[in-house]
Amino acid sequence: MINKKRNRLAFGLLFFIHSTLLLVTFIMKKDRKNLFIALLSNISFAYFFEYFVLNVFQAYKYKPKFLKNRNLDNIFGALLSQAIFIPFTSLYLTAFEVKWRTKLFVNLYFVSVEFLFLRMKIYKLNWWNPIFTGLAIPVHFYLSDIWYKHIKKGTPIVLSVSLFNMILVTSVNILFLLVVLRKLRFGIGKVYTWYEHFLIGPLYSIVYAIVATKTVKVGDWISKCKLLAFSISFHLILKRLQVLKSTKENHYLLMWTHLLMVLLSSFYKQLVNSQEVVREDEQFNN
User: Fold this and answer.
1) Is the pLDDT of residue 276 over 90?
2) CB–CB of 185/198 below 8 Å?
């Protein structure tokens, strides 16, 4: 019980610190639309990193002790790290144009936290090394800076990939929530392992994000209906192939989930389109 409270307190403290950074960023900076787009892209980049390092190669293990299932608790710890701690900080540093000397100090902070968590035994290494963390985080800081600049410029390829990132992150997060609520599960064969689930689940979200990015159009209900039809069909095909499990009792919830994803994808498309319009206006005025 003591260890559980200690672990939760440690992760909760980091959540408070980095959420405060995000709150300060959105309060102090007026470019909130572009910051929001950049934030979800920051999270997406971290998710891709975590997919290979944790989901595929199982480099380390988190023990936040928030969920009873150890596998889900491990992934929840990863979500806290890759969706909050690092991306929120990267966005803050980017928005306030913090110099690299300070960024390297922040990088040292993250490495120090990793060593502290290892000492507290709430984080376990398999083959990973904190040195790798010290090398990887500055790359994320740099990518955050470059991406935000191109979002503000309205660079077409960056906006398109940003739309994909936004849809992907939302899908991954919703799928994780549904899994925690025991509404669905991915796997192969008769016995679905958690390793299989966390290999297949993100791939499902990637396929959906690619199709949604190419399909959805602002104000066009036909494109929304096409995306909804694809989403439901994709779900049913995977279920027929026994790659996905969901009970009949969850049909209505999953239907609403598919609809929610379509509406959010359309909303994200509207945000990205508005930035493209700003770019076109600036070119016209020049």
Assistant:
1) no
2) no
Query: pLDDT digit string (tens) for 80-125?
Result: 999 999 999 999 999 999 999 999 999 999 999 999 999 999 999 9
Phi, psi of 244 (to 5 degrees): -135, 135
Q: Give the residue-averaged pLDDT of 244-270.
A: 89
What is the average pLDDT value for the chain, to the nearest integer? 93
Does the pTM of the predicted model rise above 0.90?
yes
What token pair was written down for 188? 């192969």
Domain boundaries, the chain: 1-153, 155-286
| Nearest-angstrom CA–CA distance, 197 and 150 | 35
* Predicted local confidence at residue 252, as pLDDT: 82
